[in-house]
Amino acid sequence: MMVPSLFGWTQKTENKMALEPIKVPSELPLGKLQEEVHNWISKHGVRYFNELTNMAQLTEEVGEVSRIIARRYGEQSEKESDKTKDLGEELSDVLFVVLCLANQTGTDLQAAFDKKMNVKRERDHDRHHNNEKLK
Ligand SMILES: [Mg+2]
Fold first, then answer.
1. Distance 117 CA to ligand 1 centre (A)
2. Which of 31, 104, 120, 122 is deepest in the core (most CB within 10 A)?
3. Full-model pTM
């Protein structure tokens, strides 16, 4: 099955040894991160895991973040073996997989993020200021 990606139309299960250059504006912060992940994949990862594998990986990494939050900041007790777990490292794992998914699905994450922030600025300002629970 052919799917769109930052590299044009590609075969979904294609195992490329050399990846084509990424096509996002790398001078912008998220584009720079997308490019960095793409370069890492090209140099060290051989190829992207397919989208379904990365979706499962994302779920797993979110679960690791959730475990730390629930036990360190929530009401569950934190096991001794969990006390050395690094929240930043786990959040970075989530970000890495998100960047992989963006790259392999042809998503310009900076453009999408900018669009989302504009929506949130316009839609949510009054909503949050008028939320009694936040006062
Ligand atoms: Mg992890």
1. 27
2. 104
3. 0.81
Residue 21 lies in a domain: no
Q: Is residue 17 part of a domain?
A: no
Q: Is residue 11 domain-resident?
A: no
How many domains is the chain partitioned into structurally? Answer: 1
Q: Is the pLDDT of residue 29 over 70?
A: yes
Ligand 1 centroid, distance to 85 Cα (angstroms): 9
pLDDT for residue 46 is more than 80? yes
Q: What CA–CA distance (Å, rounded) separates 29 from 27? A: 7
Cα–Cα separations (whole angstroms), residue 14 to 19, 56, 95, 105, 128: 11, 19, 24, 14, 46
The angle, 0 to 180 degrees and rounded to 10, between the axes of the packed helices 87-104 and 109-129 is 120
Separation of CA 61 and ligand 1 centre (Å) = 5
